[in-house]
Specification:
The complex is a heterodimer of chains A (118) and B (107).
Chain A: E1 3-7, E2 11-12, E3 18-25, E4 33-39, E5 46-51, E6 57-59, E7 67-72, E8 77-82, E9 91-98, E10 105-108, E11 112-116
Parallel strand pairs in A: 2-11
Antiparallel strand pairs in A: 1-3, 3-8, 4-5, 4-9, 5-6, 7-8, 9-10, 9-11
Chain B: E1 4-7, E2 10-13, E3 18-25, E4 33-38, E5 45-49, E6 53-54, E7 62-67, E8 70-76, E9 85-90, E10 97-98, E11 102-106
Parallel strand pairs in B: 2-11
Antiparallel strand pairs in B: 1-3, 3-8, 4-5, 4-9, 5-6, 7-8, 9-10, 9-11
The chains are: A mainly beta (118), B mainly beta (107).
């Protein structure tokens, strides 16, 4: 059964770094790409970035200077780190799976809610 | 970046009616256009891929059409469980982008 599950602190202080983990099961990170998508409360979806099966990454240019995506294939985990967090980064953060060259996200995690506050 | 414009923003529906939702791209995305359904407090769920391909487990009342820049998601016989927000997403080029969504509400 394919599963993705996001985890991490729900509260981050302004200007600090957000660290989230996406733990997957039912598939291999060397066979599927994993994307990060976020959604501010009551708003739409924003694509943040992707880690490809080979380990390379691509990022939304609006976030590129602050964002890093990495993985540990042995633990089936993908990591998101974003620095200099502000209130505009308050959102639910999702990881989602994509089959290589399919260009569609066919399985999503439950989401991790992140608040930025001192 | 490809901009996806969804219309209408909100659609009031009566159970049983056939409805159509629109998604227009600022440039051609071929058929790399996908539809997702998001219910309150849930993650998005893939409904239709590549503009018109059905997804296993999704009711047959959902269908999609279009190519290039104009796409449509149709629901043939809306049910109460379909009251959700529907997003289109293009996978033709990075960054992947989403439309702002169409919210189905009860008339």
């Amino acid at each position: 059964q394919v599963q993705l599950k996001e985890s991490g602190p729900g509260l981050v202080q302004p200007s600090q770094t957000l660290s989230l983990t996406c733990t997957v099961s039912g598939f291999s990170l060397t066979s599927y790409n994993v994307h990060w998508v976020r959604q501010p409360t009551g708003k739409g979806l924003e694509w943040m970035g992707v880690i490809w099966t080979g380990g390379s990454t691509d990022y939304n240019s609006a976030l590129k200077s602050r964002l890093s995506i990495s993985r540990d294939t042995s633990k089936s985990q993908v990591f998101l780190k974003m620095n200099s967090l502000q209130t505009e980064d308050i959102a639910t953060y999702y990881c989602a799976r994509e089959s290589p060259y399919y260009y569609v996200m066919d399985a999503w995690g439950q989401g991790a809610s992140v608040t930025v506050s001192s | 970046d490809v901009v996806l414009t969804q219309s209408p923003a909100t659609l009031s529906v009566t159970p049983g009616e056939r409805i159509s939702l629109s998604c227009r791209a600022s440039e051609s995305v071929d058929t790399y256009l996908h539809w997702y359904q998001q219910k309150p407090n849930e993650s998005p769920r893939l409904l239709i891929k590549y503009a018109s391909q059905s997804i296993s487990g999704i009711p047959s009342r959902f269908s999609g059409s279009g190519s290039g820049t104009d796409f449509t998601l149709s629901i043939n016989g809306v049910e109460l469980e379909d009251l959700s927000i529907y997003y289109c997403q293009q996978g033709n080029s990075l960054p992947y982008t989403f439309g702002a969504g169409t919210k189905l509400e009860l008339k």
